[in-house]
Amino acid sequence: MSLINEIDRDRLPGHIAIIMDGNGRWAKSRGKDRSYGHQEGVVSVRKVLEAATTIGLKYLTVYTFSTENWNRPTEEVQALMSLLVSAIQKETPDLMKNNIRLKAIGDLNRLPEDVRATLLECIELTSGNTGTTLALALSYSSRWEITEAARRMTQEVAAGRLALEDITEEQLSNHLTTVGIPDPDLLVRTGGEKRISNFLLWQLSYAELYFTDIFWPDFREEELYGAIVYYQQRERRFGKTSEQINYKQ
Ligand code: IPE
Ligand code: IPE
Ligand code: MG
Fold it and tell me: How does 85-112 read in b/e, with b if 16+ C-beta sit within 10 Å?
């Protein structure tokens, strides 16, 4: 029986963010090279996205390439970039068919021109879709994002377009690349590590955290459903007491 039957559709997380880790180790354990793991990782993204649309999830963000990942061997970076182009091109018709809107967060200016062009074209094409929003975190790091936000707000203050007293949590959120996307309710990390690796540090303030040893290429529909079932068993208190939550005091 599928775990999908255990999910309460009225209490879905609004936004799930995933650190897709373990592609390299998955491939190595099969005697293959890392790029094979990344290819299978793309299949997992497709399956998880299908599962997300099936249950009606509104936002899914996947950590696809971090700022720090630019420091990997050139061949691996190139392989990842060309995989990105081919995956976007291949998946675009299905994104349209399934009413999925593509977004990207991160320092997109650092991406090679062909990757950026393909990405922006798909974002534009799917911008009117109203089903699940899939956000790719690309050349993304949270410290980069927060630093950029600070820089832009400072510029606006200096130019007289923003008052000092208007620098609020909401303003800062509006200057992040995630503007318009609600904060994640659930963070999933595959691959066994229990760390955040510079991902959505601001936005994850009150997210529930789900860590699994499963490598990303093995994380498919059932694993997503399992993570959601776990999420629905948590009591989210946001600093309050359990009594306040349960008796609405
Ligand atoms: C995640 O898998 C994909 C990216 C970071 C691009 P890894 O490539 O980090 O795989 P491991 O962690 O080395 O197994
Ligand atoms: C995090 O995975 C980044 C992505 C999944 C894109 P890493 O494999 O780069 O993280 P670390 O190096 O283990 O922290
Ligand atoms: Mg890794």
Answer: bebbeebbeebeebebbbbbbbbbeebe
